[in-house]
Design goal:
By secondary structure, the chain is α+β, with helices and mostly antiparallel strands. It is built from five helices and eight strands; from the N terminus they run H-H-H-H-E-E-E-E-E-E-E-H-E.
Length: about 240
């Protein structure tokens, strides 16, 4: 009984976590899938399941967490340092995590096409949804950026070149500023999603002790007017 329970757990993990078309098209039900894969042969079944799941564990993963948020119009974000889908340059790798040549230097970002009349402030974030954690990894959060600002210069994440009134939160590495890319070796190419959010409020009701998650929760509460994205990648 214990062996079958263990097999059922692996089957359920396979059923939920893999998107292999062959398995889903041939299995008319959960129980027919059990029978088709020979549940009684627990040793072979477990290893077969693990091999399939392992194929899904390398970044980038097939989801974008922003897809779960309320839809908002999109505007354009560009950079002189990074490009959409391009590899993160060495300066934007993490010195804090010991990446060779890394400087934890935030890239230059510019944005346009947002709703000018309604926008009262911006929030700029960098998020890695492919980090091997339940909650991803927040690399950078700058909030209360005045609505008149449409650019952050290279290195703004060091703090000295932030626009007046803008504030930074601690990233998931534990310091206020930009933490560069440092994915685990062999974990595939991680996505570093730079997002500029236009908000209808001048200031969020948080201070610099707030977490990145709390900041995003308050952005949801304020109602994001529009978002712009620029995603770079890195793996080693």
């Amino acid at each position: 009984a214990q062996s079958k329970a263990s097999d059922t757990y692996f089957l359920f993990a396979l059923y939920k976590l893999t998107s292999t078309a062959l398995l889903f098209t041939k299995a008319r039900s959960f129980f027919s899938l059990q029978e088709g894969l020979g549940l009684g042969r627990s040793h072979h079944f477990k290893h077969f399941t693990i091999r399939l799941i392992e194929k899904k564990m390398a970044a980038p993963f097939p989801y974008n967490p922003y897809d779960s948020l309320p839809e908002a119009p999109k505007f354009k974000v560009t950079s002189t340092d990074i490009s959409e889908g391009g590899t993160m340059p060495t300066a934007q790798l993490s010195k804090a995590f010991g990446m060779e040549g890394g400087e934890d230097c935030s890239p230059q970002l510019s944005w346009e096409g947002f709703p000018v009349d309604a926008t009262k402030s911006f929030v700029v974030t960098c998020y890695d949804p492919d980090a091997p954690t339940v909650s991803g990894f927040w690399h950078w959060v700058v909030y209360d950026i005045p609505h008149t600002v449409t650019e952050l210069p290279t290195g703004a994440g060091f703090g000295k070149d932030l626009p007046e009134g803008a504030k930074m939160l601690k990233n998931c590495a534990g310091f206020a500023g930009f933490c560069g890319a440092a994915p685990p070796k062999g974990h595939g190419k991680h996505r570093y999603i730079f997002c500029v959010s236009a908000l209808p409020v001048e200031k969020l009701p948080i201070d610099e002790s707030a977490s990145s998650t709390v900041c995003n929760f308050n952005m949801f509460g304020a109602g994001v007017l529009a978002r712009g994205f620029l995603t770079a990648t890195f793996g080693h």
